[in-house]
Structures are given as structure tokens and as C-alpha cells.
Design a protein that fits this description.
By secondary structure, the chain is an alpha/beta fold. The chain contains 10 helices and 13 strands. The radius of gyration is 20 Å and the shape is globular. The relative contact order is 0.17.
């Protein structure tokens, strides 16, 4: 292995790899470590996927994801030309890093945020600067201004689950007209307000959505981005460097159906929010510190146990949560919201710790 590394490209070994959440084998686990939806996708999405599985699979898929773009346009009131599709939001975000950020000026993102951002910055040799969140883990819009190469942040943020008000997003856009502002809205359907309507007013805004969370299609890998007409061609150019057919025919059919089934998405999201708020109250009653959440997870600290010890103790009881390292995070875990029955069991277990 060490000998083979001499064939690696320069700098490859210096870029850390993203570490995904554990995917356990076997039954009996309560899996709350990867922010998956505990409920199934829209029946209309499943039926659309079945109908797409036929003789036409011998053909390449439509490269632009037209059926998905049309669905996004109809549901969100945007133009299909302003929509870009991809194989999960991670792919779209990686394309955006390559398409819009340069080596001359730093990219800004929060110090506590999605851990893929610094990996992409290093992978593309882009300078970046992390901006400390406030003590309550909220983002201060005043920190995002100056001579910048770009801005990216999730809203709601991950892993903190806090959402930024739409007016604050607008202030960041107004004060930085010369750089791209990318808003990663993976969890927006669980309590936040989307910045998508602002794309009509701000040509420097790109909004990215995944179908893995509120649409419960994590296993399918589908996502979309919405921006001004000038942004989509840049993403298409980067995509075509790597793979012109990033979204297969089955994924396109299911994704379009899931996007159009707004009633199913709203119902499931309300159910998760209700369970989340009830479980948060249970943790507060046990003296946990819980950050107010607008996502399908909680960011919480046990009153006594460090996060790694808590994670290990829960894993012994076949409950998976995500722990973090670093001075500000060493007591916090991220707990995805499961079904009512699952969260009742978790509450019972943490009471016994």
C-alpha cells in the first residue's frame, strides 16, 4: 500500500476524507446518526420508480433532468432553466465549489457546520476562513462581509439545527454582491423559510435542496439547485467534465413525483417536528442542554457525560447517534428524530444513564 502511494497525485494524501455515519448490519438498531427520515417516501414516488423500470433502461437518461426541473419549477414557482439537478446535494455542492470559487480570495463558512465544506476547499486548493458562531450556536450575518471569494452555509445549520431568518440571509446577499452566496437547505422543510424566492432578486444566490431528508429518498441520491439563469450553465459545464448523466432514469422519475407530492412531504415533516419538540422537552426535563431546532435532529449536551462517552453508552444499547470533537463540541451529540416509538425508547434509555 505505501509503495503504491507513489502513484497518487500530489496533495491527495493531505486532503482528509469525509467520514459518513455508521451503517449498522443486522436488526434491532435505532439508527439516529445520519439524519435519515424514519418514514417512507411518497407512494407516488415509489410507483413512478416502478414504472421507470422497463425496456427504456437500455437508453441513457435525459441529461438535464428535465422532469425534475419541471417539477421544481411548478412547485416552487421558478423557471425550469434556473434549476440544476444532481446525484445528491453533495455532488451539486462539489460542482459549485469548482464552478464559482477561485483561489484568490477566501471562502467563508461557519466554524461549526457541515464537515464536507473544508474538505472540498482543500480538494480544490481554495483558501477558506471559518467564522465562529455565537455562543448559542447562531450565525451572525454581520460576520459575513468584505473582500470574499464566496460564502456558504446550511440553513438550518448542521449539526447545530439553528435556522437563520430570511431577512438575515437577504442582508448577507445585499452586502456581498460580488461573490456567490450558497445556501444549503437540506433541512429547510422542518421549520425554516427557504431563500429560493430571493433568487429572482439576487443573481449571486444559489440554493441547494436534497431529496434525502424531507422526501425520504436518501437511498436514491437526487437533489436540485435553484439560481439565476447565469449560474446553471456553470454547474452544467463542471458536471459535463465528469459525467453528463448524473441522475438516472429511475431517480428522475421518482424524484419528480416526490417533489410534486407536496401534501405527503408536509404531513411527514409535521409529524417529525412534533416528535422532535416532544423529545426535546423530555431531554430538557432531564437537564440536558438542547439547541432550538428547525431540522429533523437535535443538537444536545448531556449534563455530565462527554459526547464520545454518551455515544458509546448508547451504542451498547443499539442506539446510534453522532458525536463530535473539538473544544466547543465535546459535550454535544446530534440525535436524528425517529418514530415516536423509537424516541420513547431513547428517552427511556437516557433516563437510565
Amino acid at each position: 500500500m505505501e509503495d503504491a502511494k507513489r502513484y497518487w497525485s500530489k496533495g491527495l494524501e493531505e486532503v482528509p476524507a469525509y467520514v459518513p455515519g455508521e451503517q449498522p448490519r443486522g436488526e434491532g438498531w435505532i439508527k439516529l446518526n445520519t439524519n435519515e427520515n424514519p418514514y417512507g417516501p411518497s407512494p407516488k414516488a415509489i410507483e413512478a420508480a416502478r414504472e421507470a423500470m422497463g425496456d427504456r433502461l437500455r437508453l441513457y437518461p435525459e441529461p438535464s433532468g428535465k422532469v425534475v426541473r419541471d417539477a421544481v419549477a411548478d412547485v416552487h414557482g421558478v423557471d425550469p432553466e434556473d434549476v440544476f439537478t444532481g446525484n445528491g446535494s453533495d455532488e451539486i455542492l462539489a460542482f459549485a465549489f469548482r464552478a464559482f470559487f477561485d483561489r484568490g480570495s477566501p471562502i467563508l463558512f461557519p466554524d461549526v457546520t457541515y464537515s464536507f465544506y473544508p474538505i472540498w476547499a482543500r480538494a480544490f486548493s481554495l483558501p477558506f476562513r471559518t467564522v465562529p458562531l455565537r455562543e448559542d450556536f447562531s450565525l451572525d450575518p454581520e460576520d459575513y462581509r468584505g473582500a470574499l471569494g464566496g460564502i456558504i452555509f446550511p440553513n438550518p445549520n448542521a449539526p447545530t439545527a439553528r435556522a437563520l431568518e430570511l431577512g438575515s440571509v437577504e442582508r448577507i446577499l445585499s452586502r456581498n454582491p460580488d461573490c456567490l452566496v450558497l445556501v444549503d437547505e437540506a433541512y429547510i422543510d422542518f421549520g425554516g423559510r427557504s431563500a429560493m424566492p430571493l433568487t429572482r432578486r439576487f443573481p449571486n444566490l444559489l440554493v441547494v435542496h436534497t431529496l434525502s431528508k424531507s422526501r425520504s429518498l436518501a437511498g436514491l441520491r437526487a437533489a436540485f439547485a435553484v439560481g439565476s439563469p447565469g449560474l446553471v450553465p456553470a454547474l452544467e459545464r463542471v458536471r459535463d467534465w465528469y459525467n453528463s448523466y448524473t441522475l438516472d432514469s429511475i431517480a428522475q422519475a421518482a424524484a419528480a413525483a416526490a417533489i410534486r407530492d407536496v401534501e405527503w412531504t408536509a404531513e411527514i415533516s409535521r409529524k417529525i417536528q412534533s416528535t422532535r419538540d416532544r423529545f426535546a422537552s423530555e431531554l430538557v426535563d432531564q437537564d440536558w442542554s438542547v439547541v432550538p431546532s428547525c431540522a429533523n435532529f437535535l443538537f444536545a449536551a448531556h449534563p455530565r457525560l462527554p459526547s464520545k462517552d454518551l455515544q458509546a453508552a448508547l451504542r451498547e444499547r443499539r442506539i446510534l447517534v453522532r458525536a463530535f470533537s473539538g473544544l466547543r463540541l465535546e459535550r454535544h451529540v446530534r440525535i436524528s428524530i425517529g418514530t415516536d416509538a423509537e424516541m420513547d425508547e431513547v428517552a427511556k434509555v437516557v433516563r437510565s444513564l
